[in-house]
Write a structure and sequence with these properties.
The protein folds into 2 domains: about 150 residues, 3-Layer(aba) Sandwich (Rossmann fold), CATH 3.40.50.1000; about 70 residues, DNA polymerase, domain 1 (Orthogonal Bundle). It is built from 8 helices and 8 strands. β4, α5 and β5 form a beta-alpha-beta unit. The longest helix is centred in the first third of the chain and has 18 residues. The mean pLDDT is about 95.
Length: about 230
């Protein structure tokens, strides 16, 4: 019988990666003679990836961005970020206790992220967390990615989890929409990377600290949505 499972988004949900992503953005901007950006106002774009962050930085300076320049800046960005892993990135407060809590209760744990798989798995390994997760999938693991619900459902299948006893944890509309489309309950953290409060996207529940992610909460949300999992 498949086990219950909790599936986490990565950036802004499980790990606070913004300082390193912003450092890499500013490194790539400096290499191209573009003024740096500050965390204020840019954290909301972190979860959208390096390409979007570069586009936003150029737009803020009213500078044109050709496809060739875009690719060049992104390569500089991703090389700098990958070489610095784990850098300043750390799990959010309460994450490790929450992982222990659910693992001890028989839940599988997995990560479903729109980060590239190699980068995501390298970060988790560098933080010493790899043994905790039954599966890690990125934007290039399958032929589809969040908000396509198949990304979440195939992550659960890869981990050998039970989709009828699954819970998603995320920080953005993308995560919430993905879980809803899959028929899986979703808990949104309100400290992640989004320019709008997660309540606007109507998740199943919202937490401000991982101490609030209890076994009772998970069981209640799973029971309330049981039978709605998309085939």
């Amino acid at each position: 019988m498949s086990q219950p499972i909790v599936v986490f988004d990565l950036d802004g949900t499980l790990i606070d990666t913004a300082p390193d992503l912003l450092d890499s953005l500013n490194h790539s901007l400096a290499a191209g003679g573009i003024p740096p950006v500050s965390a204020e106002g840019f954290n909301a774009f972190v979860s959208l990836g390096g390409l979007v962050m570069i586009e936003k930085a150029f737009a803020a300076q009213n500078k044109a961005l050709t496809e060739d320049v875009r690719r060049e800046f992104f390569k500089t960005f991703i090389d700098h970020y990958s070489e610095g892993i784990p850098g300043k990135s750390v799990p959010y407060p309460g994450v490790l206790d929450a992982l222990d809590r659910f693992a001890s209760a028989g839940y599988l744990l997995a990560i479903c992220t729109n980060k590239h798989f190699a980068t995501a798995s390298s970060l988790i390994a560098a933080l010493g967390l790899s043994p905790r997760f039954a599966a890690i999938t990125g934007q290039d693991t399958f032929a589809f990615r969040k908000p396509d619900p198949r990304h979440l459902l195939e992550t659960i299948a890869l981990a050998k989890g039970d989709p009828a006893r699954a819970l998603m944890i995320g920080d953005s509309r993308t995560d919430i929409d993905t879980a809803k489309a899959a028929g899986i309950p979703v808990v949104a953290v309100d400290f992640g990377y989004t320019d709008r409060h997660v309540r606007e996207f109507e998740p199943s529940a919202i937490i401000s600290h991982y101490d609030s992610l209890t076994l009772d909460m998970a069981a209640g949300l799973i029971a309330a949505t049981n039978g709605r999992v998309r085939a």
